[in-house]
Amino acid sequence: MSLFSQTEHKFQQIKEGEEIQTQPFLLACSQIIPFFDVLGPTAFKPVKSDINGNIQRLQQKFDKAPQELTSLQKIVDSEIAEGTSKGSYSCTVGLLWLKRALEFVYVFLETVLSGEQDLVKCANKAYEASLKRYHGWLVKGIFAVAVRAVPYYQDFIVALKKDPSTSDSQVLEDMRTSITLLKANIDEINRFYTQKGQHSEDTV
Question: Are 159 and 119 contacting, i.e. CB atoms less than 8 angstroms apart?
Fold first, then answer.
């Protein structure tokens, strides 16, 4: 058993054009947090805080109208209709940042699965592909410190095991299964945001 296989709430299998159900998605996102504890609970604390904040923002919106806002697409469409989707504290922007954090996780794990065992390289590649372009110099500096705090490869694999008898190969297989589902959700959010013109190049 690994961190990935023991997760109670997994990302849904999503086909192109299919709506992503709000509550299952948010529950799956909340279970990404332990992954950052494995990478470095102190160094990645700002990332965890940001993810939690965006999950809570979407959850609060959903809780106000759970019968209407059943999917992420419906939440975004509601804000587009209200003219609030581009606001800094909108759920549309919150979901965009949440998606970028998920892209970091995806690229990091994909790079590990490609055979790279230098986790600093994995983290740098993931950051370049997901969050870096949207960060100002101050946040980039914080992230540069976090990247240097990632564990050694074997310590990372051991930390992912929830049962000492689990093999390294099983951890990697569980990882591969998890990121396949994760990627499907990321791709659909990106497709939808492109369709609706909701991507943003704003930095923090």
Answer: no
Burial state string for 11-44 with b = 16 or more CB within 10 A and e = fewer than 16: bbebeeeeebbbbebbbbbebbbebbebbbeebb
Note whether 131 and 143 are within 8 A (CB).
yes
One pLDDT digit (tens) per residue for the chain, 204 residues: 999 999 889 999 998 889 999 999 999 999 999 999 999 999 999 999 999 999 999 999 999 999 999 999 999 999 999 999 999 999 999 999 999 999 999 999 999 999 999 999 999 999 999 999 999 999 999 999 999 999 999 999 999 999 999 999 999 999 999 999 999 999 999 999 999 999 999 998
In the structure encoding, which two tokens stand for residue 85, read together? 């989707």
Q: Please, what is the Cα angle at 101 between 80 and 140, to 5 degrees? A: 110
Query: Which pTM value belongs to this model?
Result: 0.96
Written as one string, the DSSP assignment of 97-160 is: HHHHHHHHHHHHHHHHHTT---HHHHHHHHHHHHTGGG--HHHHHHHHHHHTTPPPHHHHHHHH
Asked if residues 188 and 14 have their Cβ atoms less than 8 Å apart, the reply is yes
For residue 2, the cross-strand partners are 161
How far CA 124 is from CA of 46, 94, 118, 141, 145, in Å, comes to 17, 23, 10, 13, 11
129 alpha-carbon distance from chain centroid: 13
